[in-house]
Amino acid sequence: MTTTTQQTEIATFGAGCFWCLEAALNELSGVEKAISGYMGGHTPNPDYRSVCTGNTGHAEVVQVHFYPEQISFIDLCKIFFSLHDATQLNRQGNDIGTQYRSVIFSHSEQQQQQAAAIIVELEQQKLFNAPMVTELSPASQFYPAEAYHQGYYQQNPYQGYCQMLISPKMAKFRSQFQHFLKNKTER
Questions:
Q1: Which of 125, 129, 133, 185 could hold 89 in an S-S bridge, CB 3.0 to 4.6 Å?
Q2: Across-strand partners of 103?
Q3: Which residues are catalytic?
Q4: From CA 181, how far away is CA 175, in angstroms rounded?
């Protein structure tokens, strides 16, 4: 009997506040783990307070460890684009600053090409009322966010921000991508 070991790949996305994106990605079948953190800046070892100033250059991101045999990078990108407004430059709603930019940090040339192709496809479909501003950049050093940010939505579903902004997005996400969700025993 032959056994195969699936290899994970890494994808990193920034879509404004990382709490919603992390919550959604962790519910996907084929995702081993999604971790909130920071990437793309010039300050070593950033923390939440320093990133929130907008002076570190880092974006709030979610780094996803996934099994490409179960969920593709292209599917992850499509889900990423469904969870935020990719037409808002350096902001998402009331969160304003470069730390909230829409960004895909590619971990390979293939990811870079696939992300660029998806952006072209979405632009051609005219799904948005304005041009997309999602940045495509090579991945750099990833810094995990503080422990209290990890699984924030799951731990604080009744917190005001979560109820007003994240819960409606999660409901839409779960409805739209039901076929990608882990069954409840896997979550």
A1: 133
A2: 14, 135
A3: 17
A4: 10
